[in-house]
Specification:
This protein is α+β, with helices and mostly antiparallel strands and 168 residues long. The chain contains five helices and six strands, in the order αααβββαβαββ. It has a single domain, classed as Gcn5-related N-acetyltransferase (GNAT) (Aminopeptidase, 3-Layer(aba) Sandwich). Coenzyme A binds next to strand 3, helix 4 and helix 5.
């Protein structure tokens, strides 16, 4: 996991521009333009310049090529200010455990480096792959939230997941 670089732009636009990614997220525009990509790269670079970054690119260890994104300041869905885990992975890279690896790493970073007390996440009710990732990373399904904005599939409620720094 690292910051974004300007030479990630082509991969970012191609991967994040896939409807199979944005349909499950509330925040990735569709269609995804070069300007969207440039804005996002600049935002993440600013976030890294603070010295306490909360958003990262996911890149393959062997090639350093961009394959996705992960962050702890994702949308909470219901207006809560609790740190919220969010991630996406380019479709050609699905099914290799990369999302689980990246989510587990950023949770560890959030607790140990950012000293967060809790991390939450929510998903579209139909997003079974993402729910598996969250449960595999130790989050527990604790209920449901009412969404401020319906999901792309028109859902107005979403399952809520949470992990505590110190589990009771
Ligand atoms: C969610 C996402 C990141 C998962 O990426 P991934 O690399 O396939 O995830 P992993 O390989 O770490 O694990 C996915 C798990 O879900 C399972 N899975 C995949 N598709 C599934 C489906 N349609 N139904 C049920 N399980 C599914 C996989 O078999 C795997 O299970 P396992 O841990 O038992 O092997 C990826 O699908 C994605 O980017 N989706 C679009 C954006 C998104 O949904 N972001 C999250 C918003 S909450």
């Amino acid at each position: 996991m690292r910051s974004y670089r300007i030479n990630d732009l082509a991969d970012l636009v191609a991967l994040a521009g896939n409807w199979e990614i944005s349909r499950w997220t509330g925040t990735i525009p569709h269609p995804y333009t070069e300007t969207d990509g440039l804005d996002w790269i600049a935002k993440v670079q600013e976030n890294h310049a603070t010295g306490r970054p909360s958003r990262f690119a996911i890149a393959l260890k062997q090639t350093d090529r961009l394959i996705g994104g992960v962050g702890l300041d994702g949308s909470t869905g219901d207006g809560s200010e609790e740190p919220a885990l969010g991630y996406w992975l380019g479709q050609p890279y699905w099914g290799n455990g990369y999302a689980r690896e990246a989510a587990a790493a950023i949770i560890n970073y959030g607790f140990r480096v950012l000293s967060l007390e809790t991390i939450r996440a929510h998903t579209d009710p139909g997003n079974a792959a993402s729910q598996k990732v969250l449960l595999a990373c130790g989050l527990k399904r604790i209920g449901e939230i009412e969404l401020l904005q319906p999901t792309h599939s028109g859902e107005r409620h979403a399952p809520l997941f949470r992990i505590l720094r110190h589990e009771p």
